[in-house]
Write a structure and sequence with these properties.
This protein is an alpha+beta fold. Helices cover 43% and strands 16% of the residues. It is globular. It starts with a helix and ends with a helix.
């Protein structure tokens, strides 16, 4: 990653990842790695994130340290990688994407996004909706040509929340639920 940052004169580089389900079976690539190194300008990278084809994970990236000084990871939030990356991206410039699958994800029941039972509901889904609203503001300011894509991204995040929330938590006294529905 460091060699790529130096060679391509970019602020960040990323590798691809592979994923394995709870039973040890390989999963299809969520983010398809390039066949050769490619530099992705921040505008295009933002679009890829909004279309769910880009990788927002910091586990797959090496990023210049000085970019973290202005924007740290948010405290007590999930989906924190996406939150930080979209805030950092306008200053980042471009990202080098390398073809190697050098990061390995193993899913397990009981993690932040995998329910242990029907009533367990992770805050990650509400945090994703909050991040979608934040990214809409960033897009409006820095990438206005992506406003329609950001709007669709926000709708998708809300749909994902509504598809995962247990019916027992769809109540009038659940203010987060009511705000997302509204």
């Amino acid at each position: 990653l460091m060699r790529g940052i130096r060679e391509f004169h970019v602020s960040a580089a990323q590798v691809a990842r592979d994923e394995t389900d709870e039973k040890g079976n390989p999963l299809p690539d969520i983010c398809v790695p390039p066949k050769e190194p490619v530099v992705i300008e921040n505008r295009q990278f933002m679009k890829e994130l909004l279309l769910h084809v880009g990788d927002c994970s910091f586990c797959t990236k090496l990023v210049r340290r000085d970019l973290f000084l202005q924007d740290p990871f948010p405290v007590d939030k999930l989906n924190e990688d996406f939150h930080l990356l979209v805030r950092m991206l306008p200053r980042m410039g471009a990202v080098l994407s390398l073809p190697e699958q050098a990061y390995h994800v193993f899913y397990r029941i009981g993690s932040n996004s995998r329910k242990a039972d029907r009533e367990t509901f992770s805050t990650v889904y509400a945090d994703c909706v909050e991040n979608a609203d934040m990214v809409a503001e960033i897009v409006k300011r820095d990438y206005p040509e992506l406003e329609e894509t950001a709007f669709r991204f926000g709708i998708f995040q809300r749909l994902e929340y509504l598809l995962h929330i247990p019916i027992s938590q769809m109540r009038k006294d659940n203010m987060v639920y009511r705000q997302i529905v509204a």
